[in-house]
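> example.struct
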């Protein structure tokens, strides 16, 4: 089937989404999120960091208008596939995987809205509140960790905003450590 998609043009778009998704996943696997940011290094914590990073990428792609839609759709498809595979590897039964993935997609969608709104606010309070609510699940991680996470996500947002759509398609999200 992949040769069919490639023949009719979908293969290139899928590869672009795969490249960008792989770059995001590599970024969220870095230990600093869990050490300096004090995000719990658990299945939930890793999901929360992935949702945060993907939400920032989706916000950037949203700024592209229609040109960003194919890459956004591809990223969402890869996220669904990734979560489906992860749940199956953890031993979740076939009958409940779909429901669990649906909940994860809903959580990602809600977080996209929350982070997009919070990042647009000049006051740090909105972003900090969204981070505590969604990444730390209501638990205060302490000012040092929260400062680090806020700086990290603002730096990511700034880097993504400076990138062209072509560079995003190449997964060149340029990871710097604040």
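> example.seq
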């Amino acid at each position: 089937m992949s040769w069919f998609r490639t023949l009719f043009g979908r293969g290139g778009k899928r590869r672009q989404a795969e490249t960008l998704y792989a770059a995001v996943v590599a970024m969220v696997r870095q230990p600093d999120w869990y050490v300096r940011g004090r995000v719990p290094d658990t299945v939930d914590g890793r999901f929360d960091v992935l949702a945060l990073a993907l939400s920032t990428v989706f916000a950037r792609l949203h700024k592209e208008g229609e040109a960003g839609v194919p890459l956004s759709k591809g990223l969402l498809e890869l996220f669904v596939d990734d979560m489906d595979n992860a749940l199956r590897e953890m031993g979740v039964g076939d009958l409940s995987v779909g429901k669990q993935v649906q909940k994860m997609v809903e959580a990602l969608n809600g977080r996209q809205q929350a982070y997009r709104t919070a990042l647009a606010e000049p006051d740090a309070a909105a972003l900090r509140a969204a981070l505590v609510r969604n990444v730390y699940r209501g638990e205060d991680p302490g000012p040092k960790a929260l400062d680090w996470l806020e700086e990290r996500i603002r730096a990511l947002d700034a880097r993504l905003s400076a990138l062209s759509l072509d560079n995003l398609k190449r997964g060149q999200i340029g990871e710097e450590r604040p």
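> remarks
The chain has a mean pLDDT of 88.
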